[in-house]
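Pilot study result, target chain (210 residues):
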Amino acid sequence: MFAKDNVIEFRGKVTNRTNVRLRLGLVFDTVSELLVKSGPDSLSIPDIEEYSGVPKDEIFQFYSDKHALLSAMAKRSMEALERAISSSVAGKVNSDWRELIVFGTDAAVSFCNENPSAAQLVFAGPFGSEDRAAHDEANSAIVAALRPSIPTPITDESIALMIQMDFSCLRYGYLRDSEISDEIAVEATLASIAYLEGRQSINLRSASAS
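Predicted structure:
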């Protein structure tokens, strides 16, 4: 693929960069609507073609199959979710770390409930290596955002595992109810705090015994 000025060549076809963005935007919007309507399992490229008006041959120029398309969209959704969580705890380094977990969980819940197609992509995946890597990168970014406020006996690995626990609770609630309830948010928060408190206690006992 090569690009020059406002022209792009992809797999031997030359087209206007703006047209590409517009048509891919139609594809993304269509996928988002279909995900909310029927979920990722029943989604197909012919469905996307029918509802978006973008020929499947054009879609295949950029994505080899449905899973590659969903993976790319899930990556974007995961990045947006990470930004929402990180911004919710930014500048709060003097807050109690338990409060930060509440803030981060609440931000994740709000993002997912307000963006149902993004939640489908985040919780139903991973669909491929692209969004799998995005999950790992988001995890690392959230660890970095929380690290200044969490006591040093608690390791980065423990923080990362806590994030996965929180995420798993939210995923369970969303896939069961198609939204994340207040009750599930509370359970996720309590599980996350309890785990880190347990790790902190173990680490302190180990340090005093050595």
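One observation from the pilot: The first strand starts at residue 2 and ends at 4. A full batch analysis is planned for the follow-on phase.
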